[in-house]
Amino acid sequence: MKKGKITVAITIAIACFALTTIMFMQFKIVNETDITSIETMREEELRAELANWKQQYKEADKQYQEKKSKLEEYQEKKVSTAESSKLVEKELQQTNMYLGKTDVQGKGITITLKDIKGEEAEPITAEDLLIIVDYLKLAGAEAISINRERIANMTDIVYVSNTIIYVNQQRILSPYVIEAIGDPTKLESTLLGNGGYVELLRNIGFEISIEKNNKINIPKYNKEISHKYIK
Fold this sequence. Notes:
Blueprint: H1 2-31, H2 35-39, H3 43-76, H4 81-99, E1 104-114, H5 126-138, E2 143-146, E3 149-150, E4 157-161, E5 164-167, E6 170-172, E7 176-181, H6 184-192, H7 197-204, E8 207-218
Antiparallel strand pairs: 1-7, 1-8, 2-3, 2-7, 4-5, 5-6
Helix pairs in contact: 1-3, 1-4, 3-5
């Protein structure tokens, strides 16, 4: 009986850790928002950004409610150690998928972007990639990668200069290949529709192609997720 209680306690502790991790990453996203860049965005970009943050808030709240419900479920079923262990295993799998820690596969689109060459040379910037990623999230993309680097909540997309871009601390070069899993038609129309960002880049002169694919493989986020200050 004592052994069963210890197992249940460990089970609940693991679930609490998963809940805390997800909440922390959502707080980190809010804290790292670049207010200056938002203030300088064009009106249409600002509307898209605002809608994106609202969507992320809804997703975070949904995750919180789901984890809270799971904890209550563990407590109700603590009489069965085996059943609790199965619940924890399933929950950990779902959490790892949400965090981007597992390889995934599904239908979606592949976007290829190339810098402008010649006399009017102009590079794709980190901001361009970030805006496209935000549009894809807004369209319901369930997994995204850039040049095979998985985009997770902890991902950084930054540049040292206009021509040196880093994703997950890894330098990436043109052409930039963005893969997204989700509804192919919705993802494509969000980028190409009225005011779509890819359409705007094409009008400037960038060479961009979009292909629908029924089988896209996106690798897991391969960086360590660690906490320095949260307790």
